[in-house]
C-alpha cells in the first residue's frame, strides 16, 4: 500500500478561503494522491479576499501546481487569474486554479460536479426541463453547466428581493450564450410554480434553506407542488436527507443529496492538476458514505 510521503519534490496543491478548517477536500485529495502514488500534497490556508493577491503571487513564485477557492474568495480570484475558462467566465466565479509556467488558469468545477452527481444517481437530464431553486454561487454554477451540457429548458426560481434581478440576468446570459431556453419564477408565486414544475423532469434545491442547523425548513412551503415523476435533488449534504427530500420521498419522487456534487467537483479539480482520474470508489467508500 502506498504511503503519502512529503519529499523535496512534492507538488503542492491547496485550498484557500475563510474558514477552511471544516473542509473534507484535504482528506479526499491526499487520500487520492496516496492511492495513486502521486508525489503531491494538499493543504488548507485561511485566506481572506484582501490577502488573496499576495498569496496567489507567492504561489506563482513557489510553483504551486494548483488550488481550490472556497467562500469568500471565489469572486476575487476571478479578477486575479490570467485566463478564465468559458464556463467560469459565464458563472463569474472560480473554484479551481491550475498553474502552468507562472500563469494561473481558472475554472469552476461546481457545476461539473453537480452534473456528474446527476449521472451517478442514474438520471439523464440532457434535453429535459430543470427547475433550479436559488441563484447564489452554487446555483449559478449549476445553471451554467446544465445549459452548456444540453439541458433543454431551465427555470431559475428565487425569492422576491434584490437577488431576483440576478436570476433574471443569469437567465438572460444563459439564453444568449447557449441553446438552453430559460425563464424565471418567484418562489412565492405558487400557482405559476405549480404549472412550471408540472412539466419539469428535475427540481434542484441550490438555496441554503434546509441546511443544518436550520434543517426543519424546506424551500417549498407547499409540497403538493411536487409530482411523483419529478426527480428532487438537494445540493445540501448536512443533513443527508433534507426536509425537501423527505417531502419528495413521501410523494414518491426519486431523490438525491449534495454529497456527490462535493465529491465530483473535487474529482474534476484533481484531474485538472494531475491529468489522472480520482479513484472514485475508494474515495466514496472512505469519505462519502
Ligand atoms: P449563496 O451564494 O449564499 O446563495 C444562497 C441562495 O439561497 C440564494 O439564492 C438565496 O436567495 C437563497 N436563500 C437563502 N435563504 C433563503 C430563504 N430563507 N428563502 C429562500 N431562499 C433563500 O450560497 P451558495 O454558496 O450558493 O450555497 C447554497 C447552498 O448550497 C448551501 O447550503 C451550501 O452549503 C450548498 N453547497 C453545496 C455544494 C456541494 O458541493 N454539494 C457546493 C456549494 C454549495 P437570496 O439571495 O434572495 O437571499
Descriptive overview:
The chain is α/β, with parallel strands linked by helices. 42% of the residues lie in helices and 20% in strands. The protein has a six-stranded mixed β-sheet with strand order 2-1-3-5-6-4, with helices on both faces. The chain has a six-stranded parallel β-sheet with strand order 9-8-7-10-11-12, sandwiched between helices. Helix 5 packs across helix 10. The longest helix is centred in the middle third of the chain and has 16 residues. The site of NADP nicotinamide-adenine-dinucleotide phosphate (NAP) has 26 residues, from helix 5, helix 6 and helix 10. NADP nicotinamide-adenine-dinucleotide phosphate binds next to helix 5, helix 6 and helix 10.
Percent of residues in helices: 40-55%
Please, how many helices? 11
Radius of gyration: 19 Å
Biggest sheet details: 6 strands, mixed
Distance separating the two termini:
22 Å
Overall structural class, as computed from helix and strand content, comes to: alpha/beta
Report the count of strand segments.
12
User: What is the H-and-E element order?
Assistant: EHEHEHEHEEHEHEHEHEEHEHH
Bound molecules: NADP nicotinamide-adenine-dinucleotide phosphate
Order of strands across the biggest sheet? 2-1-3-5-6-4
Mean residue pLDDT: 96
Give the overall silhouette: globular
The low-confidence parts are none
Amino acid at each position: 500500500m502506498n504511503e503519502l510521503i512529503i519529499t523535496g519534490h512534492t507538488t503542492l496543491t491547496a485550498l484557500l478561503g475563510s474558514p477552511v478548517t471544516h473542509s473534507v477536500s484535504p482528506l479526499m485529495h491526499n487520500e487520492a494522491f496516496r492511492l495513486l502514488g502521486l508525489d503531491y500534497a494538499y493543504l488548507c490556508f485561511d485566506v481572506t479576499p484582501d490577502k488573496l493577491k499576495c498569496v496567489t503571487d507567492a504561489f506563482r513564485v513557489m510553483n504551486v501546481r494548483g488550488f481550490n477557492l472556497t467562500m469568500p474568495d471565489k469572486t476575487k480570484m476571478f479578477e486575479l487569474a490570467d485566463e478564465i475558462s468559458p464556463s467560469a467566465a459565464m458563472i463569474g466565479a472560480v473554484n479551481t486554479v491550475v498553474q502552468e509556467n507562472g500563469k494561473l488558469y481558472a475554472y469552476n468545477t461546481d457545476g461539473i460536479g453537480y452534473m456528474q452527481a446527476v449521472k451517478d444517481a442514474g438520471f439523464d437530464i440532457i434535453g429535459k426541463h430543470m427547475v433550479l431553486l436559488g441563484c447564489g454561487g452554487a446555483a449559478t454554477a449549476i445553471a451554467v453547466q446544465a445549459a452548456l451540457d444540453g439541458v433543454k429548458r431551465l427555470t431559475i426560481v428565487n425569492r422576491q428581493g434584490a437577488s431576483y434581478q440576478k436570476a433574471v440576468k443569469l437567465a438572460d446570459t444563459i439564453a444568449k450564450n447557449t441553446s438552453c431556453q430559460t425563464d424565471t419564477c418567484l418562489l412565492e408565486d405558487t400557482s405559476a410554480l405549480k404549472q412550471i414544475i408540472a412539466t419539469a423532469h428535475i427540481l434542484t434545491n441550490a438555496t441554503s434553506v434546509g441546511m443544518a442547523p436550520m434543517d426543519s425548513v424546506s424551500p417549498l412551503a407547499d409540497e403538493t407542488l411536487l409530482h411523483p415523476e419529478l426527480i428532487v435533488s438537494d445540493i445540501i449534504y448536512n443533513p443527508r436527507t433534507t426536509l425537501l427530500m423527505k417531502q419528495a420521498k413521501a410523494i414518491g419522487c426519486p431523490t438525491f443529496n449534495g454529497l456527490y456534487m462535493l465529491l465530483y467537483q473535487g474529482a474534476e479539480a484533481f484531474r485538472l492538476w494531475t491529468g489522472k482520474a480520482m479513484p472514485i470508489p475508494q474515495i466514496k467508500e472512505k469519505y462519502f458514505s
